[in-house]
């Protein structure tokens, strides 16, 4: 192991520095260490998903209403057709988002994943001291095993 970082971006930056200094890609690796099982939210909350779907439905309803106004011959004025298109779009979009949110966020649908506590940049043993020197850490001190 050359260095341990808190984020994957920091580990990638270390690898970029080492590659720019001449180490080969095949000898470098970024490895997640200290894996823990973590629960994460399944997605956006039901109200947020309902609101986003209602906004999408509004846009689709407006587009459909404009199309109907341009193509169809109706007894209603164009403004009324666009207004009803917007209303129906919001209603259908909100209902679709509500049901999707209720299905996605049900209590028995747990979302768990393995998350690393830190990221280690590793390389071949022959290149380790050179790599540590290149990033300014100096050579690694050997650890002694207890007898």
Description:
The protein is an alpha+beta fold and 147 residues long. It has helices at residues 8-20, 46-71, 78-104, 128-134, and strands spanning 3-5, 28-39, 112-123. A 3-stranded antiparallel sheet has the order 1-3-2. Helix 2 packs antiparallel against helix 3 (78-104). It is elongated.
Main beta sheet: 3 strands, antiparallel
Oligomer: single chain
Percent in strands: 15-25%
Shape: elongated
Structural class: alpha+beta
> For the residues shown, what is the average pLDDT?
83
Summarize the structure.
The chain is an alpha+beta fold and 147 residues long. 50% of the residues lie in helices and 18% in strands. It has four helices and three strands; from the N terminus they run E-H-E-H-H-E-H.
């Amino acid at each position: 192991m050359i260095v341990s970082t808190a984020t994957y971006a920091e580990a990638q930056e270390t690898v970029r520095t080492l590659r720019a200094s001449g180490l080969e890609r095949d000898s470098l690796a970024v490895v997640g260490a200290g894996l823990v099982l973590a629960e994460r939210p399944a997605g956006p909350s039901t109200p947020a998903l309902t609101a986003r779907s209602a906004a999408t439905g509004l846009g689709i309803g407006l587009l459909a209403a404009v199309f109907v106004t341009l193509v169809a011959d109706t007894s209603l004025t164009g403004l009324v057709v666009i207004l009803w298109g917007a209303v129906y779009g919001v209603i259908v979009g909100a209902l679709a988002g509500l049901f999707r949110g209720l299905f996605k966020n049900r209590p028995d649908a747990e979302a768990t994943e393995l998350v690393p506590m830190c990221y280690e940049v590793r390389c071949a043993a022959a290149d380790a001291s050179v790599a540590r020197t290149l990033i300014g850490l100096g050579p690694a001190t050997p650890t002694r095993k207890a007898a």
